[in-house]
Specification:
469 residues; single chain; mainly beta; globular; two-stranded antiparallel ribbon; 17-stranded antiparallel sheet
Amino acid sequence: LLPKPGAPLNQLELDAAERAIRRLGVFSNVEFKLVGLDQEPVRSKVALIVQLQERPAQFFEMATGFEKVTIRKETAETGGEVLASGVTNSLGAWDSALRGPLEVVPLNIPNLLLFAGAAYRHKNFLGRGYELEVPIRYGFSIPNGGGAAAARAFSRLAEVRPTVYIPVGEESRLSVGVFGRYDLATRQQDEWETGLTSTLAGTVFEKLRLALTGTASGIKTGSFPDDLYETPYLSPKVDIDLSATLDFLDNPIHPTRGFAVGATLSYILFTEKAEELVKGNFFKGEVNARGFISIRDFLIIGAHARFAYSATVDGADLPDSERYLLGGIYGLRGIADSTVRVMDASTGQPSTELAGGGGNLLLAGSLEFRFPVLKWDAFSVWLGAFLDWGGLARSFDGNLGFHEDSFRITAGLGTRLMFSGIPIRVDVGFNLDRRCKVGTGQQVVRAGGGCHVGKEDLTDTQFGLLYTF
C-alpha cells in the first residue's frame, strides 16, 4: 500500500494508501507526515512517517429476533405453532448492511424456542489486520411431554462457525472457516453437518459484487437422534457457488428506491453412504430481481421476481434437502410453509414422483405496497398490502412441467414496526385458491370429489424480522 523506498513522491498514491489503511477498521486515527519536504534547498529525498492509533480490537456481540415457525412432524409432540426467537436474521441484517448483499435465511422452528447467540470478534487478528469471528448459536424449546420429545426439545439447534477474514486488495476479502451444525429445526429434515468453507468476495465497478464460495463437508440427514447413532458416518459433500449482485438500492434493509439483480450458479457433488454408494452431480442456478419506487416519499411500491432451475448429470431429481420450496416463509404468504407441490397436468393432482415435496424448478414473484402511518424519531409504523404468486415444476416440459395448475396466488395485509431502520413484520395472507391438503405419503388427495385430510386454511399469519424481499 505504501510507496517503496526510492519511489517518486505521489500525493494521489499517498491518499489511496491512507484510505486503504482506514478501511481495515483496525485504527481509530491514521495520519501521514512528510519530513524534509519544506527544507531549503529542496532535498532530493524525504521521509514518510505514518502515525497510527489502534482502536480496541476485541469485543463481543449479541443479538436476537423472531420469525414465524414451520409445522413439521414434531407438531404432535411439541404442541403446535407459536412464536420463535432467534438471532440469525438480525445478524444477517447487519452482515448484509456492512459486507454486502447476503442471503438471509428465515428462522422456522417448531414450538417456542429459547434462542441465544453471541459472536466474539477480533479486528486485528495476528496483528495483520485480519478479522476473527467466532459466532455461536444455540436453541432449545420447552418440552411438551417426556421421552424422545423432551430430548429433542432441549437440543433444537446448535452451531459454531469460527471464520477468519483476510483483506485482498482494496475492495475484496477472503474468508476461511470451519463449522459444525446440528439442526432439528430450520430444515425439512434433521441435519448434522461439519466441514470447511471459504469465500472470496469483492466489489467490481462500485455496484457489482462477486463472490466465489467453496465448501467441503460431511452431512447426515434423517430423524435424530436415532438415525444419528444407527449410522454414525457422514456423507461427503462438495459445494461450489458463484454469485453476482448488481445493487442500486438506496438502503439494503429498508429500500425505497432503486433496483437490485442477483444471480447464483452452484455445483454440488454429493455421495450418500447407504447399502451402496450413491453419487449425485447436479447444478443449481437462480436469477432474482427486485425494484422499488417512491411516490411523494410516502407510498413505496416494490416488486420481486425469482426463477430457479436445476440440472443433474444423470437426469435424476434433486435430493429432498436441495429442492426448491414454496409456501409461507419460502414465498407465497397465505399458504402454509413449504406445502406447495408439483402438480401433474394429466390428473390435476400433486405429483406422487416427488414424495419429499419441493421441486426442481421454481418461478415466483411478489408485488407489495408500503406506507407509513406513524413516525417518531427512530420508531415508525408502516402498513402494507401484498400479492404473491408462484409455482414449482419437475422439468420444463411434460405433465410435471409448468402449467396452469402449477401456480398459486395469495394476497394479504401486514404491519411493519420500524426500529432504527430494521423492520419487524406481521403479515396475514389469504389463500385465493384453496386446495386439498397433501396427506402423508403424497397419496391422491381427492376421492369422490372430497378431500382426504381437509382443505388448506383460508389464512396464514407470519411474524418476521426483515422484509420478504
